[in-house]
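[Backbone geometry]
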Amino acid sequence: MTEENTPERKSLLQKLMGNIKLVVVVLAAFIVLSLAGFGTAKVLMHRSAAKDTEPPVVEAGPLYDAGEFTVNIAGSDGRRYLRTRITFELADEKLEKEIEEKQAIWQDKIVLVLSSKGIEEMDVQNREAIKKELLGNMVSVFGSGKVKNLYFTSFLIQ
C-alpha cells in the first residue's frame, strides 16, 4: 500500500502542526513570564536588602556650639597653632543655662588640654583620645552624663 497525501492525512497533519504551534507559543509565553517574574523578584529583593544594609540614623541630643578655640601647639615655640571649633552634645537642653554660667571654667579646661598637645598628638588618629580627655574634663565641670559627646566641627593646624 502506498502512502499518499489523502485528504484525511492532510487534515490530520494540519491539526498536528496547529497543536505544535500552540505548544511552542505557550512554552515561549511561559518562559517570558518566568523570566519577568524572576527579574522582578530579584529587583525587589535587592531593594529590600539595600534598605536593610543602610546605616542607622545617628540620634543626637541637643547640640551646643562651644565656639572656636585658637591655641599654640606645645613644643612649637609659638610658630604653630591649632584653630578648632567644638560642639557639645548635651543630655538635656536645660543644661544650656549651666553651660553658660560655667563658660569660663570649661573654656579654660579646653584651652589647657589643647595647648598641652604637641603636633604629633594632634594627628587624625589621636583626635579621639583628645575628645575623651576633653570629655573627662567636662565631667569634672558639669558632672557625669550631662555632656554626652564632643565634636570637632573644624580642626586646622597652621
Q: What stands out?
A: The mean pLDDT is 87.
